[in-house]
Amino acid sequence: MLRIDHQLQPTQLIPLIDRLFTLSGQKIVNLQRSWDPQKGSPVFTVQGLYTSRGWTEWTQGFQFGSAVLQYDVTGEKEFLAIGREGTLREMPRHVSHVGVHDHGFNTISTCGNLLRLVHEKKVPFDQWEQSFYELAIKVSGAVQAARWTDLGGEGGYIYSFNGPHSLFADTIRSLRVLAVAHQLGHVLMGEKDRRINLLERLLQHAETTARYNVYFGQGRDSYDVSGRVAHESIFNINDGSYRCPSTQQGYSAFSTWTRGLAWILLGYAEEIEFLNTCSPEELAAFGGAERIRNAFSTVAEAVADFFINYTPSDGIPYWDTGAPGLAMMGNYLDRASEPFNDFEPVDSSAAAIAAQGLVRLGNCLKSLRQVDKGRLYLQAGLTVASTLFQEPYLSVSPEHQGLILHSVYHRPNGWDFVPPGRKIPCGESSMWGDYHARELALLLRRMAKDESYYTFFVKQ
Description:
Blueprint: H1 14-34, E1 44-46, E2 49-51, H2 60-74, H3 77-90, H4 92-95, H5 103-119, H6 127-146, E3 148-152, E4 155-158, E5 166-168, H7 171-174, H8 176-183, E6 188-189, E7 195-196, H9 198-213, E8 232-236, E9 241-246, H10 258-275, H11 280-284, H12 289-309, H13 348-367, H14 371-388, H15 431-448
Antiparallel strand pairs: 1-2, 3-4, 5-8, 6-7, 8-9
């Protein structure tokens, strides 16, 4: 169980954050100089060097988005150039990619961050540049929203790359491209010029995900533990009926893949923040702001509690809470994570994602005057960040291109590198783990310095 440091403050993390961004800059430059774009998108490291893995193109936005975040913190124009030029050169094909559910990852990490910098006046204003980012987000949001499986009765979901029958937990965090596209006034145009509201699609997807991918301890099946997450839900698209839980990257349909849980936690927490930018009138058509906010909070709090209870004391979870080797490790939840054990790998990327979710959820609840509960989640997030930003998770070697060590990509498929003499994957990094560690560090740095609160959307 996570041992929360209730006294830790964001200001105390500044030395760790400064060191992280110093190392981050070196690694971004290293990758930029060595990466061959013909190889596709960098995905994860093997013996310290980033490699590609053809599955879906979902990580390139993290590559160039990382450079944009680096510029945001340091003001070094070299990183703005890397982010801008990479976005202009490589990201247009992702904007119109009709085969993936990952638009929020690719487009908001690049065009979204760059648009935010324009509005924050951190880059010189150029109308054509702003219009480029806005158009990219609008198109990407509409393409994402068009991947729609209708369940009838005003229900439905954005389906995964597996096909119309498949609802992934991951997609909840990718909804942010619909949010920003809606904020920019865009709609999806359907048959007979039907105008499809992107906010409505966002809310319907979130409701369906909560209903089928998240458990609330209500006896849904024999493994219904409150806060547990199923990576995938399967539907019969002939009649819209739910069939079963499933997983692609977890151990089983009845255990919790911790990165899937982390996507849920962060996705719902930051969408609560986004809802505060919507007018009461536009949310009234969907049940009202209070009902939606309460529903999102219920999901986020359930999975946050599960994360706290099923994560080792230092805040770095193992890759799946039901992984069979954990039974060989004794009371592994009562001590710090062990990335070099012989049984099951940890997943630092899940920690980076979940920590940001905990911090955002905590801040949201505090703003709603749920102070004690909000403080608990905030302190939990700070505790995880404190572990993540130090060795053995922070990558300090200049030869290693990754920033955060001990990330896992696809354990069931055996895609992760196992070092010689070891029995499980360890010591490697991932594009999403590195990017989300930078996002987390940027968020905490702004909080510590009392600067503008970092959000994925442009504050009105």
